[in-house]
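Lab notebook page, bench 4
Experiment: in silico fold of construct C2
Operator: M.H.
Input chain length: 262 residues
Purpose: comparison with the prior construct
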Amino acid sequence: MELSFKINKYYLLAHALKSEHPPFNGWVNLPNKLWEISNDAYCFLFNPHSHDIIFTKIENDKDFDIFLNTITKDSDKIIATAFKSEEFARLYKETRKYMESIEKEWNNKRINITKIVEEITGEKLSDIKIDVLITHPKLCNGMALPNSDTICWGHKENWDNYSMVYLMHETLHLILDKKLGKNNLTHAIIELIADQELRIRLNKNGIYFKESKEGVGHPFLIKLSKVLLPYWKKYLKIKDKNIANFYLEMEKLPKIKKLQKY
């Protein structure tokens, strides 16, 4: 398993512009400036919720050709203006500094993290190569893109080892969603592995579902995770662990089936 940390400037820009919260004071000057270039092009690029308004203006092929040409020209202006702006320069600089700190932390801890997760799952992590696209830490980003083996990440450190835990959480989505199936049971098991057990082992203390008075785990999975917990505790005690077998055993339980919806 190899994580390659990168900044994709197009994704960085798009993610920051669509966020409801600014990465820093003064950021709003940039979207205001880009909006003035072309409302339609700005919404087309960064606000998919406005597509209904935009496309209802198109009634035939001629309208579409005119729209496409205009959007292309205006989009080029918007992107060029954004990349030359002081606001984007600051966004990129702060994101790069954050990326360097996260990459350094990961490289220092990855051997231990891998060892812990392999012990919990009972199997070697695959030789998957993952691109980690880093975004600004104030914008609370975290998701896995299985079609391209990519993780998008940028988040403040809510508690010790926060980014390490959730980088592994997203990595497990890329591995276990394919192996076990993408559903709530797999997701809950990933949380038990990473959000709960890995977190506690890395921090050398803690309890399940809570860290520094903050809830840990998706609220919509808590009920399922707590039903799994007694079986999970027994699983952690066995010598020859196999996460796929654990999944299959849990999948058969009637009370799990009732909660197993995605």
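Observations: Residues 8-93 form one domain. The chain has a mean pLDDT of 95.
Next step: discuss at group meeting.
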